[in-house]
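Fill in residues.
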């Protein structure tokens, strides 16, 4: 919950018990203040008890959509369902609307190299930034004339409705580093290249990403490094099956597919219900 909402709610709890969930890695002063009176604190990342001294802290992950877990299928089958070649390495690129320009520019630049490497791309473009002073566009992320045709080398979509299928089809995933995105990606357990959104509050996406990078569960390239490091880092992942397997195994540490149930169970336990 955003601090602008949870601070007044918890402040007016008037002695009633409450539990606190921190979805990101960073903890602000308000987080620390509210955690002091919480019955327990639930975190999405490990080693966060250092921020919440004196509070019962549980690393249980972020609740995610159930279908991310239940609707996954075999990678080869997922590729075939999407009309892709099941034998070709496939990259999935995802991110929120209006924060995709960096990734969109990169894919436009490197499409010829992807073709040379015979790599398929599932490219979620997101919606474009609205014109200065203008309204947010309601359709069309990127004009089709702006995207070189992928032909049988991949798919382009403004929005992907069946994310479990897209995750399943991917051999490598490129993504921003939002808290819920990382929780879903950890459960998907596919090699990840994270490109944190640089304008997120307190640069928290970089901190989210570094938590995985430090466990060799992901690679990271910052926005300002895209031209110099994006392609080489991406190919480091794509061209090493050993590295991909290692990253997948390490992601298991962060995967919390039962986060919702475990959080509810802990609340009931603490409240003796």
């Amino acid at each position: 919950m955003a601090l602008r909402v949870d601070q007044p709610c918890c402040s007016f709890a008037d002695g009633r018990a409450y539990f606190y969930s921190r979805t990101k890695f960073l903890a602000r002063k308000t987080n620390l203040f509210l955690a002091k009176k919480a019955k327990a604190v639930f975190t999405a990342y490990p080693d966060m008890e250092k921020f919440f001294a004196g509070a019962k802290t549980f690393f249980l992950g972020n609740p995610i959509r159930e279908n991310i877990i239940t609707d996954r299928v075999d990678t080869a089958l997922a590729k075939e369902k999407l009309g892709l070649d099941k034998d070709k390495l496939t990259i999935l690129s995802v991110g929120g609307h209006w924060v995709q320009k960096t990734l969109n520019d990169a894919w436009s630049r490197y499409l010829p190299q992807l073709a040379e490497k015979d790599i398929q791309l599932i490219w979620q473009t997101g919606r474009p930034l609205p014109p200065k002073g203008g309204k947010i566009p309601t359709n069309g992320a990127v004009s089709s004339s702006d995207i070189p045709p992928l032909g049988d080398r991949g798919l382009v979509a403004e929005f992907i409705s069946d994310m479990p299928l897209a995750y399943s089809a991917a051999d490598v995933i490129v993504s921003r580093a939002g808290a819920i995105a990382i929780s879903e990606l950890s459960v998907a357990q596919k090699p990840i290249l994270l490109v944190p959104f640089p304008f997120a509050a307190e640069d928290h996406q970089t901190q989210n990403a570094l938590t995985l990078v430090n466990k060799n569960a992901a690679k990271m390239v910052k926005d300002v490094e895209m031209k110099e490091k994006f392609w080489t880092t991406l190919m480091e992942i794509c061209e090493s099956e050993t590295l991909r397997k290692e990253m997948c195994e390490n992601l298991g540490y962060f995967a919390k597919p039962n986060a919702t149930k475990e959080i509810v169970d802990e609340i009931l336990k603490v409240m003796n219900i």
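DSSP finds eleven helices and nine strands in the chain.
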